[in-house]
Amino acid sequence: MTIPTYITIFRLLCIPFFVALAICYSLSVKDGAADETLRWSAVAIFIIASVSDALDGYLARKLKQFSKLGAFLDPLADKCLLLFALTTLAVFPWGPEGWRLPVWFIVLVVVRDIIIVGGLWILHHYQTGVQIKPHWSGKVCTVTQMIALGWVMLKWVPFSPLYPAVLASIFTIWSGVSYFQLGLTLIRKAPSNHE
After folding, report:
1. Domain ranges within the chain, ordered by starting residue
2. CA 149/CA 82 separation, integer angstroms
3. Distance in angstroms (rounded) separating the CA atoms of residues 12 and 84
4. Which of 79, 88, 75, 10 is nearest to 49 (CA)?
5. H/E element, 172
6. Strand, coil or helix: what is 110?
7. What DSSP assignment string belongs to 1-31?
8. Which of 59, 108, 121, 141 has its Cβ near the most Cβ atoms within 10 Å?
9. In the chain, what is the straight-line distance between the N-terminal and C-terminal CA atoms, in Å?
10. How confident is the model over 150-187, as pLDDT tens digits?
11. Per-residue pLDDT tens over the stretch 17-66
12. How much is the pTM?
């Protein structure tokens, strides 16, 4: 196993620690005695896990250590980290009433990802070895979702997390439509001799 793959596995292992700390902090808020050490510990783990994403990619290129396992685990770890964080901060509030991500936003994110995974399966059926490169709208989607997470976790802005969630939703839908259109284009170009 390569060094970048170990880092990716480390990122996956960070997820349950973040979730546990996030839930414990939410419960302390609910009890009226918010334990800020729990919050900052959860934030620190999330930041470390996020930075590890850039690190494993950098090391893979620098050391020329690429593997099929790493290529599979890296996007899986990224998506799991983001989805678990978003879901946790939708179900367990980190502040007064309303200081959480809306549940409809999480449903939208999950449905978009299910559609994309289903689309990839269909593309695999139509033509082998399809390489889907990230679309710019997908990258903006991820950035806006991270902003929504940071909005809730850092508590620096006194306005409701609904605002960044709405912004992230726009790009979530936009990127989903972009990938759907790309998938249709690839299916139309696929050889017609598939079974």
Report:
1. 1-94, 101-195
2. 9
3. 11
4. 10
5. helix 162-189
6. helix
7. --HHHHHHHHHHHHHHHHHHHHHHHHHHHHT
8. 141
9. 36
10. 999 999 988 999 999 999 999 999 988 988 888 787 77
11. 999 999 999 999 999 999 999 999 999 999 999 999 888 888 888 888 88
12. 0.83
Q: Could you tell me which CATH class the domain 1-94 is placed in?
A: mainly alpha
Alpha-carbon span 120 to 111, nearest angstrom: 14
Structure tokens at 8: 């990716």
Count CB atoms within 10 A of the CB of residue 113: 15
Residue 53 corresponds to which tokens in the numbers above? 């994403």
**What's the rounded Cα separation, in Å, for the pair 100 and 106?**
11
Within a 13 Å sphere around the CA of 168, how many CA atoms are in the beta-carbon half?
26
Cα 132 to Cα 159: distance, rounded to the nearest angstrom: 37
Give the total residue count for the chain.
Answer: 195
Q: CA-CA distances (angstroms) from residue 5 to 45, 135, 157?
A: 19, 24, 36
